Amino acid sequence: MSLTRVQKAAQVAGRTMADRHTPFIHNEWYVVALSHEISRELMSRTVLGRQLVLFRKEDGSPVALDNRCGHRNFPLSRSALEGDTVVCGYHGLRYNERGECVEVPSQCNCAGISIRNYPLHQQGPVIWIWMGEPEEADIDKIPAMPMLDEGWVTSEDYMHLKASYVYLHENLLDLTHLSFLHAKTFGTPDYARAKFDTEITEDRFWLKRYVVPTRLPPVWAKPTGLEGRDAARITTSDFVSPALHIVHAEFYDIALDESERPDQRIKTAHIPTPETATSTHYFVVHGRNFALEENEVTGFMHEQLMAAFDEDVVGLEAMEELLASRSEEDDFFEISLTADAASVAMRRYLKRRAEAEAAERTSPQAAGGAKTALASA
Q1: At 81, is the pLDDT very low, low, confident or very high (cuts 50, 70, 90)?
Q2: What angle do CA 166, 50, 356 make, to 5 degrees?
C-alpha cells in the first residue's frame, strides 16, 4: 500500500524514538526487587538481559552476583547458600559476596576465578541495583521517591509485564488513556478532554492535567470524603529517570475556599526495570498524606489501584503481541498526537542515551581497555 505524506512523516519520526529494539541503558540505577523479596533463599532474576542471583548475607545486607558459576555456567540460584558464600551445585566452587571464588574442592589454587557482583542500595521498600560500569555507581544518583521521606503512608507491589519498558513510560506520560483503558476503575469520561500543561527539558519530561470540575472515582472519592461532590483532580506525570516515573495527584472540593481545603495528595512511584527487550519488572510504591492512621484505607486504595494498573499490563501486552506479529516489510507507522509531545521527547531521549552508551562500549578506546584487561588477567 502507498503511504500518505502524513504516514511517511510518521515513519521518519518513529525512527528517532526508542522502541522495543532500542539497546538498554546500563549506567543507571534500577530497582531489582522489593526489599521483602530478597532473603536467605537464593533468588534468580533477570535484569537488562542478565541473569542474577540475589540473597542476603547473615547481617541482612543484600548481594547480587551473576547467576552462573565461572567454571561451567551452572546456575548459582540452584546451588547452596552457606554462611555468606554460595557453593555451586555442580562442582562445589565457593563464591563470596564480591563474586570471588574462595574454594575449589578439586584443587588447592582458586586465584583469578571470579564472577561479577553488582552494587546494591536498599531504600525503604525497594532495592536498587547498578548494572553499568562499577566505578560510576554513585548512590547520590539514585532517583528520589519523596513519599518515603515525608512521613506518608505507603504500600508497594510488583507485576510482571510482558512488554517493553519504553511503552510503560509512554503510557504514564499520556494519561488521556484513563478515560478508556481505565473506564471501569479510576478513569472518568472528562479526563481525556481536560486541559494540560507540558514541560520538556533535556532529560525531564513533565505533564500536568487539570480535571476540574469532576466527580472522583471511588478509589479517591471514598478516602477523601469527596463522594458526590464536584471536585478537582489535578495530576502530574513526571518522568524522573529511565527507571522511575512519579505520578502526583491532588484532590479538593471546588466549593471550598483555598484556605479551607484539606491537603489531600497522593504520589505513586511507577518503577520499570527492563527484564528483556520485551518484558519488564513493574514495581509500584504508592503513598498518601491523608487518613494516615486508617489501615483499611491503605488496603482499599491499594486493591483499587492494582486493579487499574493490571489494566495497563493487559493493554501494553496486547500492543506488544501485535508488534511482535508484524513483518519487518510492513508499511508500519505510528502517528503521534498533540498529547504525545512529552512522551515523544522522552522516547527520543531514551534512544539518544542508549545509542550513545552502546557506541561508547564499542569505541576503539573501550576495545583497547578490554584488550588490556584481558592481557593482564
Answers
A1: very high
A2: 50
Integer Cα distance of 75 and 110 in angstroms:
19
Angle 310-44-20 from CA coordinates, rounded to 5°: 50
Q: Give the residue from 311, 323, 239, 362 showing the smallest Cα distance to 14.
A: 323
Asked which of 131, 165, 197 is the last residue of a domain, the reply is 131
Are 202 and 278 found together in one domain? yes
Is residue 290 in some structural domain? yes
279 and 223, same domain (yes or no): yes
Q: How far apart are CA 137 and CA 132, in angstroms?
A: 8
CATH number, domain with residue 298 = 3.90.380.10
Cα R_g (the chain), whole angstroms: 23
pLDDT at 49 over 60: yes
Do 122 and 162 lie in one domain? The reply is no
**Closest to 245 (Cα-Cα) out of 62, 83, 30:** 30
| Calpha distance 104→87 (Å, rounded) | 10
Asked if omega into 125 is within 30° of 0 (cis), the reply is no
Residue for grid cell 529517570: 241
Amino acid 376 reads: S
Cα–Cα dist 99/81, whole Å: 13
Contact 244, 224 (CB under 8 A): no
Cα separation values, 4 from 1, 9, 17, 57, 122, Å = 10, 9, 21, 61, 52
Do both 176 and 285 map to the same domain? yes
pLDDT confidence band for 260 (50 / 70 / 90): very high
Closest CA to 188 of 239, 162, 226: 226
How is residue 327 written as a grid cell?
Answer: 513483518
Q: Answer whether 0.85 is exceeded by the pTM.
A: yes
pLDDT exceeds 60 at position 375: no
* 180: Cβ contacts below 8 Å, ≥ 6 apart: 187, 192
